[in-house]
User: Fold this.
Amino acid sequence: MPFLQVSNLSLRIIGETPRLLRSVSLSVGAGEVRALVGESGAGKSMIGKAILGILPRAVEVVEGEVWLDGQNLLAMPPMARRRIIGAKAALIPQDPLTALNPSRRIGPQITDRLVHILGWDRARAESRALALLEEVQITDPARVMRAYPHELSGGMRQRILIASAFAAEPKLIVADEPTTALDVTVQKQILRLIKGMQERHGTALLFVTHDLGVVSKVCQSLSVLYAGMVVEDAPVRDFFAAPRHAYSRALLAATPKYTDPEGSLTPVPQTVMDAVRAEVAAADGVWHG
Amino acid sequence: MVDLTDGRGRVRRRAGVRLWLSGLWLGLLVVVALLAPWIAPKDPLAQDLFLGRLPPFWVAGSEPGYWLGTDSLGRDVLSRIMHGARIALLVALIAGTVTGLLGATLGLLAGFLRGWVDVVISRMIDIWMAFPPVLFSILLIAVLGPGLTSIIIAIVVIDWTRFARVIRAEAMAQGAMDYVASSRVAGRGRLGTMVEEILPNVLPTIVVLLTLEMGIAVIVEAILSFVNLSISTDDPTWGGMIAEGRSAIHQSWWVLVFPLATLFLTVLSFSQLGEGLKDRFDPVLR
Assistant:
């Protein structure tokens, strides 16, 4: 069984009928980098949240399983689940500006997990944090450890969040659009950093993004999501060579290219939208009986 | 660029002045309250009908030693204000703090835990706010009987919603931030997250509310004294003095005006102290 296996996961808002996720299945093997792509509102982040157990209160799991390292997370009592997730998985959040607590110094925010989950003593956790900050190319890590988030730039904060995610050597990291909130020039550095860290540490990565350019550079496999339904699941090489689903093909055609700036911005054709919506409706028809 | 720094500098300095002036007045009041039995020029309870309705020192007909004049029974107004500060500050400190602790805790629980905890606390707030506060407090004192403890209990019981409402909203806003999600992924439990992640971020608001609440407590105590429901009528209170002064406003305005001005300055200072502290300590504004 792969390190992370999501099977037939359906979510919905409590008290409402339509599903946010429609029987989603996907897997991430040890050390694999899988992209999760789709337009906004497709449910990309919801999958990440469901895996990490941080779904909003109003959302409930209707059916499905999330297996992490051979254990079914959804069947566990909450406290045990917290421990497993805290030890084996981590999150690189989307917005570095709200992902660090403004009232606390950087140091404890990185070491918290090491102390609470792994039971390290403070000194050991701190030297580990210093080494990690060095690894994400932060100059003067000792000073940064004592700083408050508002004293640091967005790029710095994202580096800190990356360091923090790798702190407990998790086997899986969910990166939820980690470069969306950043400046274009910083985006590239951060991507290279994540990729480099991932390779050195052998961590599996679930990379949530809507940027197919990023996918081709960073990922090995991808799942394409539309309206909470996986419409294509393929290795990245096969996908870019010959996407199987009409929606994937249209999505790929809609990606701007440097080589053809004029002709490349094709909107997804109406016929394709109708077809994929019909597919969603059919799936719902089967599910609701 | 120059304009920007200038503008900022001015704002900062005004906050500083505000903090200083209010701090100075409250500090003075604390000293006076602590030392009242020794530094008050006269016995606040001593009556002397021959010295009734003496005007303050700069008005013709005043007597030396009676700086702010006397009331109709010949009691020294200044000494009574100084002794009244003891009760006012005691009520402000104890009632304000207890109200803050209770209200902030309930607000934090409701805003962060949500679910049925929130439903219960929010409904309680709604019901509480539907009572007219002054009538409610008079009713409470009538049940509990007059006295310092009753006043403090009445203020806490009535005013905890002020904290609970605001802190609940703040905790909800903070709870939606990514750092809370990160803390949860890192394996922290709900209560741990609440205390270590949320609480530090709502603390500046709690401090501001606390100082406001202390001002309100002073007013409530004065109102209750005014309607003669405070502590025993022998002890001088600002509200009691205002009530007595009101009936003699045409003969001796000073009996009303000086305690009123003291009350006004004190309540203003509490609120300005809160604002000043907020400017100084809020990490986001800083």
About this structure: The longest strand of chain A covers residues 4-13. Residues 270-288 of chain A form the longest helix (19 residues).
